[in-house]
Amino acid sequence: MGLQPLEFSDCYLDSPWFRERIRAHEAELERTNKFIKELIKDGKNLIAATKSLSAAQRKFAHSLRDFKFEFIGDAETDDERCIDASLREFSNFLKNLEEQREIMALSVTETLIKPLEKFRKEQLGAVKEEKKKFDKETEKNYSLIDKHLNLSAKKKDSHLQEADIQVEQNRQHFYELSLEYVCKLQEIQERKKFEFVEPMLSFFQGMFTFYHQGHELAKDFNHYKMELQINIQNTRNRFEGTRSEVEELMNKIRQNPKDHKRASQFTAEGYLYVQEKRPAPFGSSWVKHYCMYRKAAKKFNIIPFEHRSGGKLGDGEVFYLKECTKRHTDSIDRRFCFDVEAADRPGVSLTMQAFSEEERKQWLEALGGKEALFHSFNRAIVPRPEGSAQLDKMGFTILRKCISAVETRGINDQGLYRVVGVSSKVQRLLSMLMDVKTCNEVDLENSIDWEVKTITSALKQYLRSLPEPLMTYELHGDFIVPAKSGSPESRVNAIHFLVHKLPEKNKEMLDILVKHLTNVSNHSKQNLMTVANLGVVFGPTLMRPQEETVAAIMDLKFQNIVVEILIENHEKIFRTLPDATFPEPVSLSPSPPNAPPRQSKRQGQRTKRPVAVYNLCLELEDGDSPNPPKEDTPPSSLDSLSSPSPTTATVPGPPGPDKNHLLADGGSFGDWTSTGANLQGTWLARRDSERQEGPDSTELCQAAVAPGP
Asked: What is the pLDDT of residue 276?
């Protein structure tokens, strides 16, 4: 049961039960006062914590803004530039969020703290003052009554009458004060319900406004988020492909390092210990130097360098070589030594020590010493061994037969050109196609003996077996340059120009192939092979550097972009003539491209572009190959980003329960991130279509995921 009402008539009786009811009302107001006081304290702590959180968020945003990724090589892809700019975008997002948080913190002060403090001080404080007066008048009234009742009856009547009037007046004043106090007590009990709750409502309204603003910021950020997810997935897929190439090169160099030394401007270079003579009795010391020698100019550079001191580089010395002489152990108590004499210091020799006898012989050969071996420090670029495949009439026949069979039988097969065939079958098919006697007998369109994956693998194997790539060694570097910089239009124009510089047979075969790949990409809703996926597969097939180096492998992602541009602009590039002059690509500014506009995208209003992340998991059991093969570089998850403008085609998941599933357009970002952890673009089958998987061992596990809004 709640508080009992205070009747005004009871003020005149002032019974003990009336006093009990008054004390109950007073206790409730005291409890309310303490609660509001604690609530105000907690509210101030909340504001302080909010400000601390805001300061930490701003510091975090500041750290994001100041960091910049470095990249390997001389250029970044559009994806990498967008990823680089993403940290600043995150910083701006947090900054905008904290501005809204500051507004919320200010609203807490204005809508909650100040109204509660005002209610506590003005309303509850006024009741406290009334209570003090009431208690004081109560004491005064009953004291006066006690004193009056103790008056002697023998007093004069006039004195007694005067005392009666005074007591009556005091009692009337007490009753009036009691009435006002009772009225105030009941008034404040009713008033506190809205005076207290109304500020709380305003507080929660401010908090909901903050969260709503955050939701609006998230919706505005959603378009950029989706674009960035594409950039990240494309970059991850390209990284996987580049990593497999780097590992392959590393293993080649590990097996035979001498054959993979880089071409250098120096005839010989490497570390040597140089004897530094000191005055007696200190003897001499041996200091490690990095030495470089140009035979044509007989110029010798030596630079002291000590790894153990953190890589401290000393002052170098340059001299011109006069002669070099081998030192024998009977003349010096060290092995692998030789003397060099500078042209400007006749008679003064400098003793050097190599790391081994083999290295000493190489230095003697390079320096013109007496024991010279016919061995070069820097190998010439080793040409790739020529395969049996040739760019001739037979080659065009092979290409056309394979393309016709693929478009007739397997244009909608998922993972087309990604799923590889059995190595032995691929080699047998390619041998039959390259044999004049058996080529016409092979029926690829109607025969069930040859699977589509065997045909596609044979086609790729033929292209990789050519003496040089279809887009030639000579123009390799020229094709890479526009992919690294310039506007989308300038990139297309530059590649258009370069394609028409190819030899006629190369251009004709490239035209046939790219037209086919364009058709494949047009069926990407079924086969999941978007333009970017095809770029990842055919980039290393159509283009490759003449010398394998890490720097060249880092350009693999730009090879993919070149192929993407060819596919996207096939009609223009192969059906029209380019400008007469080579279009210089417009250099990109160091600053990253502008982020996509932060506009709220409702369902059906988003910029359309393919969103399927293609991830094939292949189990390999090749009975013909002892080692598991490496598959082609992982497919890019989404459509080509060779130009910033998105394409207009979408890639929903294929129908049927066994096909890939696309998340609904309204899926959450959490759905994307939780699923995206599994979408590494990693294939259990590795690169090179000439290494194939077992006949019945391909278990296709696919995931096509649309990022949430």
From this structure: 83
pLDDT score at 236:
87
Structure tokens given for 240: 């996987």
Residues in the chain: 709
CB 101 within 8 A of CB 50: yes
pLDDT, position 674: 36
Alpha-carbon gap, residue 573 to 567, rounded angstroms: 9
Distance separating alpha carbons of residues 301 and 313, to the nearest angstrom = 14
Six token digits for residue 294: 């140009």
DSSP 8-state secondary structure symbol assigned to residue 7: -
Rounded CA gap, 535 and 632, in Å? 11
Backbone angles phi, psi at 326, to 5 degrees: -75, 140
Residue 617 per-residue DSSP state: B
**Residue type at 649 in one-letter notation:** A
Centroid of chain to Cα 471:
32
Asked if residue 46 has pLDDT above 70, the reply is: yes
Contact 287, 273 (CB under 8 A): yes
Whole-number Å distance between alpha carbons of 672 and 229: 9
Could you tell me whether strands 312-313 and 299-306 are parallel, antiparallel, or unpaired per DSSP bridges? antiparallel
Determine the Cα–Cα distance for residues 212 and 100; give it in Å rounded to an integer: 10
Kindly state the percentage of the chain with pLDDT values over 70: 77
Residue 176 token pair: 């009036």
* Half-sphere exposure in the Cβ direction for 352 (13 Å, CA): 29
Euclidean distance between CA atoms 681 and 633, whole angstroms: 9
3-state secondary structure of 601: coil
Question: For residue 327, what pLDDT band results from cuts at 50, 70 and 90?
Answer: confident
Task: Provide the CB-side half-sphere exposure for 412 (13 A, CA).
Answer: 6
Question: What sign for the dihedral angle of Cα 329, 331, 332, 337?
Answer: negative
What angle in degrees, to the nearest 10, is found between the helix axes of 669-676 and 157-255?
Answer: 30
The amino acid at residue 38 is E
Which two tokens mark 89? 């975008």
Report phi then psi at 351, rounded to 5: -90, 130
**Lookup: tokens for 360:** 């000493």
The alpha helices in 543-668, defined as continuous H runs, are 550-554, 556-568, 570-575
Q: Are 686 and 244 in contact (CB under 8 A)?
A: yes
- Name the region of 284 (left: φ>0; alpha: ψ -120 to 50; beta: rest): beta
Instruction: Let me know the angle formed at the C-alpha of 323 by 317 and 326, rounded to the nearest 5 degrees.
Output: 100
User: CA-CA distances (angstroms) from residue 171 to 143, 152, 166?
Assistant: 11, 21, 9
- pTM higher than the cut 0.90: no
Q: Cα–Cα distances in Å, from 332 out to 89, 275, 337, 339, 349?
A: 66, 11, 8, 11, 14
Give the CA count within 13 Å in the CB-facing half-sphere of 214. 13
- In DSSP terms, 701 is beta-bridged to 617
Q: Are 418 and 537 a contacting pair, CB within 8 Å?
A: yes
- Cα angle value 355/356/362 (rounded, 5°): 100
CA R_g for the chain: 44
Joined together, the tokens standing for residue 67 give 């960091």
> Tokens at residue 509, please?
């075969």
